[in-house]
Amino acid sequence: MKRFLAAGMRLFGKPSREGPSPGVTKRFVVVGLGLFGSEAARALYASGHEVVAVDTDPELVDEIGPFVTHAAVADAREAKSLEALGGGGADVGIVSIGTDVGASVLIALALRDLGVREIYAKVTSLEHARILEKLGVTETVFPEKESALRLAERLSAPGILNVIPLAPGFGLREIAIPENFRGKTLRELELPRQYRVQVVAVRDFLAGTINHLPDPDAVLKDSDTLIVVGEESQLDALARG
Question: What was the pLDDT predicted at 241?
Fold first, then answer.
């Protein structure tokens, strides 16, 4: 991919000035291309969105270049640099500068000044989160804390495979089929009545398939897992069978 040099910025491709197609794609600006930022950028681009990836490290920019719409070496603390990359037309900004609180704050301010509607920021401490929340960012993300909590929840209930908190006391979980559920159907189990939870999908690990409209009369197998939404206390009870 050709590399351009302009106004102190190294850019892959040509920044688009056009907005996203309604209902089809969004434009994301991802600043900071460490593990968190680069994985977010790749996943968003793979999902069909327009992604502008920015970092001050040329090696990280070179690495992400083929996997995003545009990648640039630039100082994102300056709104004019982000604007030159098309940041002014972005729908969402992701700030992944966890260790440098000052830079994180300035980048969030620059995105806000450009009118970016949603800003998500990686943080490394509660103090960092409070500062950014006062600036009006949409959401702060604490990857280490959230990963630790999910791991602790999984370890405390071995039948739980994945955990996604949705609201205080409410979440979505993927659980292994309890032994006493095997050979039965969802209709027979009556989980909404018995546990006040809703099964939204059934995954078959052996077949590598997921059914988001599960057949209530299909017999559950050892290789199945249930993806269920509900109150955490009820999900705990369901995982215990």
Answer: 66
Q: What is the pLDDT of residues 49-64, one digit of tens each?
A: 999 999 999 999 999 9
The two three-digit tokens of residue 194, written as one number:
């018995």
Pairing of strands 50-55, 70-73: parallel
d(CA 172, CA 200): 9
Where in the chain are all domains bearing CATH 3.30.70.1450? 146-240
Q: What is the pTM of this model?
A: 0.61
- CATH for the stretch 146-240: 3.30.70.1450
Q: Where in the chain is the domain with CATH 3.40.50.720?
A: 3-141
